[in-house]
Amino acid sequence: FDDTESNRLDAVRRDFVANISHELKTPIGGISILAEAISEGSDDPVLVKNFSERMKIEADRLKNLVQEIIDLSRIQGQNAMENAVILKLKSVIEDAIYQSKVRAEKKNISINFVAEDDLDFFGDKKQLVMAISNLVENAINYSPENTAVNVLLRKSDDFAEITVKDQGVGIAESDIDRIFERFYRVDSARSRDTGGTGLGLSIVKHVISNHGGDVQVWSVPGTGSTFTVLLPITQIKES
Ligand code: ADP
Q1: Are the C-beta atoms of 186 and 175 separated by less than 8 Å?
Q2: Cα–Cα distance for residue pair 163/114, rounded to 1 Å
């Protein structure tokens, strides 16, 4: 009886639980300290307002984290593709961009979308929208104000190719291999500022692999990053 694989899975699971516990402790600890401070300074309305606003930020962070853990376990589940239908990739991308509209406007970042081809694809719309919107959201989060994010959909050989290109901080070569790991962040302070959980790209990777595809990164620190999603065209009929 070879139990190598089951031992490996056990280790991955233990590691994940340890990581989740650690990640949950930070916002919970924050809320607890803030609650204490509010109760001690309850006669100072400015302090109460300030600390309760910070409490809301920590609570939102906790909410995001729990939601992403649920999303991740759902897309890794056995029935992850049970809701797959034939859908239009152009509208998937439009929905994903729409979700990031407010965030982009706040930083005066323009999102330009060009669909050279609209393509039919057999997939799970919710998952694909989530994956593309994670990429667009990262492009916004890791870019300075007044820049542009360019999104392109086209047919490339046997693939539907979706690229999300930003003019942001970029990613060092030594980090590129690790950014798809759960909870990995290049700069955790910066990620925390933007409400990042470190799970966004691992969700992207799982969704794309559920659809038989691949995701690639090209990046130059200080210049920007391009994330390219390739979805196999065998499942695609041109519309
Ligand atoms: P997070 O929630 O921290 O954004 P992700 O899994 O989405 O987590 O991304 C992992 C890390 O990869 C980020 O913390 C960030 O350091 C880096 N990263 C992701 N997308 C970009 C991007 N477009 N530009 C620069 N860095 C990025």
Answers
A1: yes
A2: 10
In this prediction, residues 136-156 reach a mean pLDDT of 97
CB 132 within 8 A of CB 162: yes
Ligand 1 midpoint to CA 127 (Å): 19
Give the number of the atom of ligand 1 that is nearest the alpha carbon of residue 227: 23
Q: Predicted confidence band at 238 (pLDDT cuts at 50, 70, 90)?
A: low
Sole residue written with tokens 């590691």 = 15
**Ligand 1 contacts CB of residue 97 (under 6 A):** no
When comparing pLDDT for 82 and 190, which is higher? Answer: 82
| Whether the CB of 27 sits within 6 Å of ligand 1 | no
188 CA to centre of own chain: 15
Is pLDDT at 236 greater than 60 in this prediction? no
Cross-strand pairs, 81 = none
Query: φ and ψ at 154, to 5 degrees?
Result: -155, 170
> Given ligand 1 and candidates 69, 171, 175, 192, which is best to mutate, with the most ligand atoms within 8 Å of its CB?
171
Our answer on whether the CB atom of 169 is closer than 6 Å to any ligand 1 atom is yes
pLDDT at 17: 84
Q: How many helices (H) and strands (E) does the chain have?
A: 8, 7
Cα 67 → chain centroid: 12
Please give the distance, rounded to the nearest whole angstrom, from the Cα atom of residue 39 to the centre of ligand 1: 36
Is the pLDDT assigned to residue 227 strictly greater than 60?
yes
CA–centroid distance, 169 to ligand 1, in Å, is 10
Identify whether the C-beta of residue 160 lies closer than 8 Å to the C-beta of residue 236. Answer: yes
Of the ranges 36-40, 51-55, 75-79, 164-168, which one carries the lowest mean pLDDT score? 75-79
